[in-house]
Design a protein that fits this description.
Length: about 300
């Protein structure tokens, strides 16, 4: 019998507490699923399901842990924890990916079609303005991981010319793939719409600084469902105020919740969404957790392992 800990406080542990034991049983794995803030005999816990916003910060009592299974795609809150020595897997959940595709496509189309112009029309003005079609709007995605590829694929299927940029060179059907500093400049120069789907690491923090924002074409749209610190906030405000960037739709922030007095709330060129671009869906995520536990027990390599050195 293995022991699986649902770590710390979490509002929807109720749902995982029901789904996970049933899924483990279905997979033929005998397990005790524990939901205690301070479980007895922590050294006998085999797997820790980790909720990033939980209050669990010290992994050192869990000396027998075979893996920590993160419930989020982003791992920046846990990857630098020095008490964590067990392998760390991040979440790749089909439900989370589907949600991110829908959110990015919706916000890209909002700006591409100028939907606000008609939705907000109150002046009885009949001024037809036919929007362009997708093939006329080059779009760039920074980050070609699970989410960047899924979002890029959906937008490419709609007809957008999609350029993607990543650390290592990639070959993704339907996209122009670039890497390296020169590749980044090229990707930004053609980005009428820019979507950030990079993880937050020391190498990506403030990647979109004042200089790189100037590489974007005048009137570009920036959409950030990645992480807040990917952007230099002051540089973004300056680029919006100068008109170089037409609009920014931001889902993630340096500080969350975004403080009530933060200038982003009132800025007419910024749309704030409260970190809802997507979320892990328990009904699909339990399958991912169970598969990794099965692999761990069978001595097979775990899926979605985080490279501690790279930080994602
Ligand atoms: P992933 O599969 O790990 O992909 C990360 C991508 O970023 C990879 O293509 C990687 O390049 C690239 N990358 C990393 N560091 C880089 C660097 N220094 N320079 C250039 N490219 C770099 O991650 P994912 O599952 O797609 O998720 C991406 C991020 O989305 C998460 O880390 C999280 O921050 C965010 N997210 C947000 C929400 C939300 O609701 N707002 C929800 C889920 C996730 P390689 O391919 O070469 O490794």
């Amino acid at each position: 019998m293995i022991r699986v800990l649902l770590s710390g406080q979490r509002m929807d542990w109720e749902e995982y507490g029901e789904l996970l034991p049933a899924a483990l049983t279905d997979a033929g794995i005998e397990a005790e699923v524990i939901r205690e803030r301070a479980p007895r005999s922590p050294e006998t816990i085999d797997y820790i399901v980790y909720a990033p916003w939980s209050d669990m910060k010290d992994f050192s009592p869990f000396t027998g842990a075979k893996a920590v299974l993160n419930l989020w795609a982003g791992v920046e809150d846990v990857v630098t924890n020095e008490t964590l020595t067990a392998p760390l897997a991040r979440m790749v959940d089909p439900g989370l990916t589907a949600g991110m595709v829908e959110w990015c496509v919706a916000h890209a189309l909002r700006h591409h079609l100028g939907i606000d112009r008609d939705v907000c029309r109150r002046d009885a003005a009949w001024d037809p303005c036919v929007p362009p079609i997708a093939r006329e709007r080059p779009l760039t995605i920074l980050g070609l991981g699970v989410l960047g590829c899924a979002v890029g694929g959906a937008l490419s299927d709609l007809g957008f010319p999609v350029t993607g940029w990543s650390r290592s060179g990639k070959d993704v059907s339907g996209m122009t793939c670039l890497s390296g500093e020169d590749g980044l400049v090229e990707a930004l120069r053609m980005a009428e719409l820019l979507i950030l789907l990079l993880p937050l690491t020391p190498a990506t923090e403030e990647l979109m600084n004042a200089e790189r924002l100037t590489f974007l074409p005048k009137g570009a749209i920036l959409i950030n469902p990645g992480r807040g610190p990917l952007i230099d906030d002051d540089a973004l405000l300056a680029a919006l105020d100068s008109g170089h960037i037409a609009h920014a739709t931001l889902d993630v922030f340096r500080e969350e919740p975004l403080p009530r007095d933060h200038p982003f709330w009132a800025h007419p060129g910024i749309t704030v969404t409260p970190h809802i671009a997507s979320a892990t869906r328990p009904d699909t995520a339990v399958g991912v957790l169970v598969e990794n536990i099965r692999r761990g027990e069978a001595g097979e390599p775990l899926l979605h392992l985080v490279d501690r050195f790279r930080g994602y």
